[in-house]
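Researcher: Structure prediction, please.
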Amino acid sequence: MVFSLLPMQAYGVERVQQQEDFGVLPIEGELEVNVFLYDISLSWFQARDLTHLHQLLRDTKVIRPSAKSQLYSKGREFVPFEFEVSLRLFVPPTEVQQEYRSLLNSMVSKTPFQIAQQAVEFASTYGMPLAWTDQTIRARDALYVFSYLTEKYFPETAGKYAIFLFCGIPAMGGNRPAIYYTYGQSPDTGAYLADFGLSIYGGAWWGRYFYVDLCSYPPQKFYQQLKPIFEYGTATERVYHVAQLIDIIIDMEFVKSLTYKPRYNVQTLFDVIVIDATVAGVGYDIIVRYFDPELLSKAFRTLVPYNFFTTRLREVELKDVPELSQAIQYTPQGILLLPEKAYDVLKRRGIIDESIREVMDYVPAIILFTTTTSYVDEPGVLGAAIDRRDDPSLPLAASGATYYEELIKSGLTALLIHEIGHALGLRHPHDDFDEYRNSKASFFALTYFTETVMSYSRSWVVGFNREEIFEELYPIRTFWSIFDLDNVDRAVVCLLLHEYEQDYREIIHSLSSAGLDLGEVPEIGEALDLARRYSLMALEEFRDHNYFDRASFKGLGAQLVSAFD
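Model: Predicted structure follows.
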């Protein structure tokens, strides 16, 4: 990858320095995306050959020519990175296609009995024969097939960003589509959690590979966005559908993913405050059984390895703080926690102590526990970040709601990690501002199964005790896939350089406002010149890394043994 850099120039301390004197951002480069077609007929798109298909996809104007860095939901740039998209299409030779069918078929196995009922529920929404649910494919095993074939037959593309478009029907014998799933056990409860209908799966957590079975059925709620390609009526519709899939995968999965804003306070206190709204006041005793503070700390140590985390768990009963009734609303759909009001009450009563922020990161997490259905703000919402009133882009605290049936199924730890993750700057994988179309976008169906605790699916549970499946590639060992190493690497580098640019600009402006120039304050001029030279040196070092090759890149988090493991 080639990054464009401003040439380094020498500056005297008495020279009047302008914005361009210290600008080192944005970092620009090329993003090469390889698209492989397995058992995909070009006739579906009325394409004469691969070149024609490539042109048809480009003519839709759907696939963005450049993918920009993470943006806030309102469109404000967060990390100044931009990649020019280079798209290449491949149709593997006949013998490779035959090996693919054999390998994918070998991954078919009996659905684990612990999740068989969930498989039946998925099939019943489409009226599928129940026999289909007995023989299914684990999503990671399907992805492994393509990883293996890529390393064996296309080594020049191994470890680079790749999308595998395929039709699984021939590999299944020609008479039925394949059904894909993920599953795992909740670390709090031991309950088996599963997702079925993963016709699309992968991303940066899995060696930068992403598969799309164009002939498989997604969950019913995502049917309109991801229905099988043979259910589109025209070739034009099929071309547009594939173009949209490629574009969103590039933008949301390969470039944006999750964002983390570095925090520099060494000590962090997670202050978990349980509002016990049960009649008998037994919520705290129950919650203790389904909450593991060590797992909570372990999760965030993968994100901030040098920080020291402390978790404090406290109970507040409604009878002891009657004002909290103002923060609880009873509706026909369930009990609602109004988090901002709860925060204000707890702050007034001294239960939340903001003075702690003077010595460490302080992250309150307010949890409502009831014996009936309960949510945050509105029905169906299990948690939300509480934003700072003076700057809504910055989180103030986390909040959540749970009730007995949900607690014994999923536990509390994952909910807390998700909500505290927001308070530390992490986003849902489906959140986006689409800068290409200048609108707020959210392709929920495509990113739903991203294997992170920040998603809404149950696929996060697969990341717990993750197994390595890609030999010679970066072994992902991050707990619950809390973040994507590629995104963190570029975010940290760019944010530091961005802060440097802002500080530089503010110093020059302050001197100018005071009627001074650098010639009158040589110490500041020398410090700024040194800072600029160091920033360019850091950028040169970063450029020299083979950024898109985890096996050799020795950056902030992508080496085999790193601070992020």
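Model: The chain has two domains: 1-9+23-261+432-481, 267-423.
Researcher: Thanks, that helps.
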